[in-house]
Structure formats: structure tokens, C-alpha cells
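User: I'm curious whether this sequence folds into something compact or stays loose and floppy. Could you predict its structure so I can see for myself?
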Amino acid sequence: MRTKSYSELRWIESFEDRFEYLKLGGTVGRATFGFDRHINQAFYTSHEWKEAKRHVIIRDQGCDLGVKGFEINGALLVHHMNPMSVDDVIHGEEWILNPEFLITTTQNTHNAIHFGDASQLRIKFVERKPGDTRLW
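Assistant: Here's the prediction. I'll summarize afterward.
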């Protein structure tokens, strides 16, 4: 699998193209951490993760996939662009806390990335103007 990074992602302008770059196309119900869920939970409650997450949200200005115009008004998630494993957490791999491999998302965008389901994505608001007769 190819390593995805913020350095590459930042050159992709549209939300839709960023989604295409990031989508994983997994399957619903596929086990990730399984019986080792406690390792995952310990990681996501650690001080180091909270600091990395805060940094990424500030860098992305609270926007979904870091795209202006897609401001997140609810819960913010920070997504690992490259899926991490139990071994990555156990061995303290540096990349799992590196903002270069993290991006801000909503829950729906996060799910869409993992399952390759673009129907969950938010559509950018199109402002209507007088005389505009084009259908949505």
C-alpha cells in the first residue's frame, strides 16, 4: 500500500479529490483491533495523541479534510491517512503521532474514507441567485 501524506494531500484542492486520494474501500464490520481494543483506546486517550490531534485541527482550521468552505460545526475527528496496527501502537511508531500523516474529518467523512462510500459525504452548499433556474 502506498503511503499517503499531508504534503501530497495539500496540493489537492477539491474536497472530492481529497476524498478519492484518502479512501480505503474497507468493508463494514471488518475487525481492526478486535480483542486488542484496549490498546487502541489507551492510545486515543493519551496525552501525546491529544496534543497531535490539537495541532492537526488547528493546522486544518477545523475544516473537513482541511478544505476551506467545509468548516466542521460539530464533533471533529483526526484520521490516520495510513491505517495503523496494534504493532504500530505497541512499538510506539513515530508516524502514528506525526501530523504529516493525519487529517481532520467529520464522523461521516471518516466512515466514507474507510468504507469508500461517497454517499456519506457532505455536499458543498451552492448559493442560489435571482434568475438562477438550474436545478440542483
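Summary: The chain has a mean pLDDT of 87. The chain has six helices and two strands.
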